[in-house]
Amino acid sequence: MARPIDEIRWQDLEIGAAVSEHGSSREYKTGSWRSLRPVVDKDQCIRCGVCWLYCPDMAISRSEDGHFQADLEYCKGCGICARECPTGCISVEIEEF
Amino acid sequence: MAKERKGIEVSLAIAEAVGQADCDVISAYPITPQTHIVEHLSELVADGHLDAEFVPVESEHSAMSVCCGAAAVGARTFTSTASQGLALMAEIFFIASSMRLPVVMALANRSLSGPLSIWNDHTDVMMVRDGGWIHVFVENGQEAYDHMFWAFRVAEDPAVRLPVALNIDGFIMTHMIEPIEFEDDELIKRYVPEYKMEKPLHPDNPVSMGCFAMPEIYSEAQMAREWALVESYATCIRAWEEWADLTGRQYHAVETYRADDAECCIVTMGSLGETAMAAVDELREQGEKVGVIKIRLWRPFPFDDLHRAAAGKDALIVLDRAISFGGPGGPVALELRSAMCGRPQAPVIVDYVAGLASRDVTVEDFKAIILGGKAKAAAGDVAGFTLYGLRG
């Protein structure tokens, strides 16, 4: 677990602000950017995985029942999954925070 | 006994130095007046005299990108450019220093367009003044040859790890044949040892370089850059001392000529310092108490050395070779005015811009500038700058 970014002093940075800790971008929860939320109608979903394939942030994963869902901690609500879904089972709804 | 000197074009001597420093990767795009440097390096590689990768690229942007990539895996890297080439390279120029990659560049100072000009002044380097690199200026071919090694030695020092630009006046130096003392390879190996980068890009120990930074960390990253550049000063000095121990040729961040008892000094940077010295000799014969202050290290800016050099002077007359358009004067005068601001008995700074696009600045011109500057200082006419020799 990386140190919270707002606790890092300039002296703590690696040379050239390099990052040796792998996967630190996971700490950056881009879901807060979202103004639209993808909602899946499981009755229409054929579990083809096209949404998973197209998601530019790799925020969609497959759950145990074979359906796909977006991780809302990272999903920016771009709507590409809804646009590409061949059955139209994904709708976008206005996010209410 | 003095070492043997060899008559050689300065560009070729610089290329020979890069070869002697056993550079690993050279990437460049030809541009006047730098071309002979990389042309000769490509010959050295092609003829088997230098075991290096020579990467000919389609632009200076790519040249600096190749250098950054090579430096990131721990290679000793070199490029050379000038003027428009530097402008095209600018995006990656700043990235090299932010990633602390010790790329070394010979910058054959040339006017920036427009109007289109291939001749010499300092408008190109001043464009990247704030790019986070170490900048050194040299005055003649011997200094250029010597500082090629100094540049690698400083850039790759683990305490520094910053790119270094060796500023050489285009044509005035690059195309001049001068007598130069060459050092043997064994001495160079001692001075520029094999480079071992800490944490290079390597699949066994992955590291991300050039990462995205949020507003919460960007300021910290900038402060780390500032600190690194300021702290590099000590290594710059040590590297000059080590070079003096090995070769007997001693350099300083700021150098002076007949300045100790001078009331007024002309301040130069680059090759015109030699002409200024000749002018000062003639003025001394006429009883004028004048001297020369030469700035060798431009970044990190040697504030303390300048304070010492300027102590007790009434006026510093700056010979600038670029204009900060719409600002208060040339870049060197701006720096000096900041450096002297608020200090007790600080000299006044009079700024002349001259020698743009290689317009001649002769000994007579220097005498006129020094005497004119002295008169301006006495009259309190010290704001802004004067474009010397301007018609109209």
Q: Could you walk me through the main structural features you see in this protein, from its secondary elements to its overall organization?
A:
The complex is a heterodimer of chains A (97) and B (392). Chain A has 97 residues and is an alpha+beta fold. In chain A, 10% of the residues lie in helices and 16% in strands. Chain A has helices at 50-54, 80-84; strands spanning 36-40, 60-62, 68-70, 90-94. The two termini of chain A are 27 Å apart. With 392 residues, chain B is α/β, with parallel strands linked by helices. Chain B has two domains: 5-247, Rossmann fold (3-Layer(aba) Sandwich), CATH 3.40.50; 254-387, Rossmann fold, CATH 3.40.50.920. Helices cover 41% and strands 18% of the residues of chain B. In chain B, the strands form three sheets. A seven-stranded mixed β-sheet of chain B has the order 3-2-4-5-7-6-12, sandwiched between helices. In chain B, strands 9-11-10-13-14-15 form a six-stranded mixed β-sheet, with helices on both faces. In chain B, strands 1-8 form a two-stranded antiparallel sheet. In chain B, strand 14 (348-353), helix 12 (363-379) and strand 15 form a beta-alpha-beta unit. In chain B, helix 1 packs across helix 2, helix 1 runs parallel beside helix 6 and helix 6 packs across helix 8. The chains are: A alpha+beta (97), B alpha/beta (392). The A-B interface holds A 5-6, 8-20, 22, 24, 28 and B 98-101, 161, 198-199, 205-209, 211, 213-214, 216-217, 219-221, 223-224, 227.
